[in-house]
Amino acid sequence: MDEMNTNALELDSAPQENNAEATDEATNPEEAQSTTSEAADGQETEQNDSTDNQEQTNTDENGDGEVPFLMVRYNHETKNLSQSEARTLAQKAMQSEPLMNELRYLAAQAGEKSVKSFIENLKVTSEEQRRDKIRNQLVDQGNEDLFNSIFDAETSRIQNAAGVMLEDESRAFNEEIEGEHIRLAADFKDLQAEFPDIKEVKDIPDQVLRLAVEKKISLLDAQLRFNYAESKKINNAKKSAAAAAESSAGSVKSDETNSTSPAIEAMRKGLWH
Fold first, then answer.
1. Residue 223, Cβ neighbours under 10 Å: how many?
2. pTM of the prediction?
């Protein structure tokens, strides 16, 4: 309470300063309006900048201009993947899984507990054999400078060959995807010719696209198979409904046949009596 009273006294003790400020505002209305407008513009600018920064953060969070589609954790690290990155990695995983199965078999055959340990031991053994081979080919086997020079040159050659393998694999992978896209684009025209209601690719059911890719058949073939399967479902549902209705009707007729109306029952009693 004392603090409130003190504040009130301080405000009441300076009425002339408040009047002076009011007078200045009344005397220079354009200046006051300009100040207010500048403050509003500044606030709006800050809001726009904040919105732009937020949009940029959401758009470029994974560094490739695409909004993160999937978050994965591997090797103690978390990474945000765009939809295209997730699709590419999934396709590569499908492509490499058969090779991993072979490596698992070889690792188990060698008595290793994992593919990683098998490859590491295989690499160490291979490197030791390569060192021994190079050293045995030298006249002066104690010449370490010459040995290291030859070993490093051969290592560089092997790394370059591995890089060429990677490029060839990437090229083959991209060509396979591109070829699949070209095939589906050509199939789409044939599909439209038979089904004019399909105007765009988005009009094709997901089951049809999946069937065409998995079975490696045309979109038209996949669409016809899909339509046939849907037709079978509808016919089976109709048959089930008809059978249920017939069973229900038969039950009602049986009840009516077995039951006796009160009038007939009275007549029977009268005849017996």
1. 23
2. 0.46
